[in-house]
Design goal:
This protein is an alpha+beta fold and 135 residues long. It has 3 helices and 5 strands; from the N terminus they run βααββββα. It has a 5-stranded antiparallel β-sheet with strand order 1-3-4-5-2.
Length: 135
């Protein structure tokens, strides 16, 4: 198993679907957010700690999504999150939502680190180390 990739199991609930039991496109955004949050958590980072100790937070600056196939009610999915790059104030990740190994959606995500006032700021050294130590 590649330790550079974090995998989060996700179950599709009724609230994630339309009347036909097909997952809404917006549900993939929620699945991906959970994946990114848990990716940070296993690296010793969390949103509250970043805000309180590092004086800022990550936000999605850009996201591109390719949908390949539909997920359905009760499916067991996996959200795989992998860091591709870290620069001064941003990080780039790739996320893939799969069902049984089949890619349903791929997301290219650029995160920016912002101060509470909403201004870009360098990613704190501790967060940078947490990213780079495992990449």
């Amino acid at each position: 198993m590649d330790d550079r990739v974090h995998r989060l199991p996700v179950r599709v609930y009724y609230e994630d679907t339309d009347a036909g039991g097909i997952v809404y496109h917006t549900a993939y955004l929620r699945f991906a957010e959970r994946g990114r949050t848990e990716y940070l958590r296993v690296r010793g980072l969390d949103h509250r700690g970043l805000r309180d100790e590092a004086g800022g937070h990550f936000v999605v600056r850009r996201m591109a999504i390719d949908f390949h196939a539909a997920a359905r009610l009760d499916d067991e999915l996996t959200v795989a999150t992998r860091l591709w790059d870290v620069s001064g104030a941003s990080a780039t990740m790739e996320q893939t939502v799969t069902r049984g190994g089949e890619a349903l959606a791929t997301l290219d995500v650029r995160l920016a680190f912002l101060t509470p006032a909403g201004r870009p700021s360098r990613i704190p050294a501790a967060a940078r180390r947490a990213f780079l130590d495992r990449v």
